[in-house]
Structures are given as C-alpha cells and as structure tokens.
Amino acid sequence: MSTITFLFIQVSNFISNIKFRIGIILLLSAQITSAQNVLFSEVQKKDNKNIKFEILGKVEGHYLVYKNIARTHFLSTYDAQMQLMETNVLDFLPENLFDIDFIRYPDYFIVLYQYQKNKRVFCNAAKVDIHGKLKQPISILNFTDIGFFANQKIFKTVFSEDKQQILVFKKNVKNDIIFLEAKLYNTAFSLMDSVFQQYGFNARNDNFTDCSIDNLGNLYLIKESTAFNGDNINSLELFQHRFNQIGFINMPIDLTGYFVTGSCLKVDNINKKILINAFYLSEKQDIAEGLFSVVIEPENFVIEKSFFNLFSEDIKKSLQSERYKNNNQQIILSENILLKKNGSFILMAEDNYKESVYNNNQFNNSNYYDPSSGYASNDYYLYNQNYNNYRSYNSFNNSNALRYYYKDIVMVGIGEDLQMEWVNQIKKNQVDVEQDNFLSFTTINLGTQIQYLFIDKDPQHEIISIHGLFSDGSVNRYPALKSRQLGYEFMPRLAKQVGSKELVMPYIYMGKIGFAKIIF
Asked: Between the chain's N and C termini, which has fewer beta carbons within 10 Å?
C-alpha cells in the first residue's frame, strides 16, 4: 500500500468519525430539546369537571390557580412539585359575580371583577397576596345603573403590556348614538385619566372594537362599518385618545376597494407603533384572499406603511372550511400575533368552527360577524364577549348538541416592510361533541423557537403532539408527550406559560380536574 493511499484512508476514516460524532451530538441535542419533565398535581375531591378555573401563573415561586366551586371562590397554591400547599377562600368576592380578570405581579396579583347589586353593576379591583388576603381596601373603579333586561357585562377591563396601566372601558348605545367612556388607573387604583365622548352610530352596520392601551396610557380602538347588515367590512377608522388630552381623534384606514372580515389591533410598545391586521377579500369572494397589514406612528397619528399580501391557493384552502361557504368569520386574535424587536411579526390562525346537531341534521352555527347580533333594544350596552379572559371548563349539559372542529394552524412571517416572508402550517384535524376543552392548541415561547402543543389520540394513550416553529419559518416535529397512564385527558387550550421554560396545563382524571407542570 502506498503512503498516499494510506494517508487517504486515514483522512477518510477521520472525516467519517467526525461525521458520526456530529450525528450523535445532533441526535442528543434533538432529544434534549424535545425532552420534557411533567409533574402532576393530585386531583381534589371538590375539583369536579363543573368548576370554573383560571391558571394565574407563578407568584413568589408558587403556582396559583383560581377556582369557582358552587359560586364560592378559592385560591389554590401549589409548590414547585405541584403539591397542593393550601386553598384559601377569596371571601371578598361576591357570589353573584359574572366577570373576573387577573393581573399577575412578582409578589401579588390584582383581581378585577364585576357584579350586580340591585339595578347597579359594579367594576371593582382588589390587590391580593398569594394567600388570598387583601393587601389594601377594595376599590370601586366604575359603576352604572342598568335596566331589568340589560346585558350584565357592561365593562371591559384591559391592562398595558408593562402592567402599570389599568383601563376600564364602557360602550353604551342609545337612540343611534354610541357613548364611549374610559377610565385609566395605576396599580394603586388611583384615577390617572378619563375620557367620555359620543358619536353617531348605526347599530346594524357599525361596530366599535374593544379598547387597547399602550405603556404611555394612550387608548386605541377601531370603528368597523359595513354597507349592509351582515356584509363584510368596507370601512375602518382608527380612534386614539392621548393620555390626559380631551376626547378622541380619528383617521380612516384606506382599504383601496377591498373588504375585510374583521380587524385586529396590536400595540407594539418596543417600536412605539400601532399594528392593524385583517384578512381581506373582494366583494364577491367567500374566503380570504390575503392579509392586509398597516403600521401607524402614534405620536403624529399617521399611517407609516401598509401592504396587501396575497395568499397562495394552498394557504387559502387551509383557511377555508365548510363554515366559510356560508359566512366569513375569519378573525385574527391579538394574542396570536408575536412581535419582534425589528418591527417584523409572526401571525397565527387556526381553522375552527362548530355545527349544531338537531334531529340528526347538521347545520353551521350562525356565529358570523354581525355587530347587531343579540341586541334588539335601542338602549343597550355593547360588549365583545370574544375577548373575555375568564377561562372556564364547559359543562356537558347543553340542550342542543354541538360538534366542534379545530383544524390546521397556519403561521405567517411578515417582515419589517410588511411583506410576507414565509408561510407554513401544522396539519391537524380535531373533532369533539358538546365541548371543545380538549381541542385547539397552546404555545410556549422558548426564545429560539415557538412550540405548539395539541392533542392527538391513539387507542392506548392520549398524546400531546409537539411542533417547533423557528424564526425562518421552518417547523420541526418532536417526539410526542404521552400521558403516564390511561384516563388522563389534557386541555392544552386552557394552559398557560408560567416561566421561560414552564407551562401549566389542566387535565381531567376520573372526572376531577388537576394541573400538570411541563418543564421544557
């Protein structure tokens, strides 16, 4: 054997060895990335499937869960191993409250709740420690008198991204006039700003969205208008109230002749911008043709840039379902938009709809976009229930059976110039009857990737399927997470990220609700 041949063989072996080691490292890295540690709480006797609950998050190293059992309000505290430490009654909350929201801080949380006493509806705020005890007296943020048949949910409460601004917002319509009222508080519940203004309003064709607030205390909302009742939206106006200024200012958003199915406003506090997204379509189309995006510079209140991104036929099909043949409720949710520091963003959309099953006949639920739906009086309050943060488990005693469908997830990457950089999708097909708590998905932001968790089922175990979305739009499927034994049913849609690599997810076992911490 020549020296040259021997050296060639040595070099080849060396390269093969390096490739083998790199392969082993990559395999181990993939296993480590996708490995999870799951800690289960023990189910409690009183925590049956009819309770209402919300996972509050992590406070002082403990995991807090609010529970409403037979109209009594509890705060359960779990340790790092998800062992129940204590359950305390929130005795300051009235039995008959009908709306509740929570704002979590490192060592306490704020409860915002609404209830009715006689003919008056109150919106109160309470600051509470991890033991469920008040840290200061309860504050009344707003109240109003209502008629006997009026909708109880009068106020909408929102807070800024930095959690330093708390907004109580009310919309009231009377005799073709809409009254907009907002009160802004700090975390000590001191009134910082307020605004009250009225506009002409056509209840059949106009809709004012709920308010959003930036970290500076400025308020934003959108007026959506249609040409005829039930049509797609052909006009958008952005309203702004600047902190400690009088009234609102407004400007039109040019749709260049297109229609949209519903607008979504997102506050970008990092870049100090306002972002509006909507699916757009031509007048005669039944499904979205693409994504319309516009960026507003709020200081001078001017449109900085806008763009219409046309979807491919494959994406149109992924966003289309049987429901869209009869209506056009393709709505973007604010929580499904992930902002980046450079002004780009990722948008997520899920194909979901429901059908009523009556006398063995199926028909699409008429839950399409209609601003006047549910209001027959000329004196009523407007409240968009789609934005209610109160998460509760649906009971099984529906008088009419409903079949729920949750299908593909579509992810769209939009660049700084608002042009579409990539599109990807995660295929799934989930169906259930009478409740949808086990359907849809949740996400956890791990910094380098966004992981999507949703339920798949096999004959032996319930499987949590895990997919990772990376910044370039690529998707990686990881080994599934299986329940440790039969009988555990997870509810990803009601999960909450509580740490940089921690997620708390509710589950049902033998008819009782428990909570599992998943560590990534």
From this structure: N
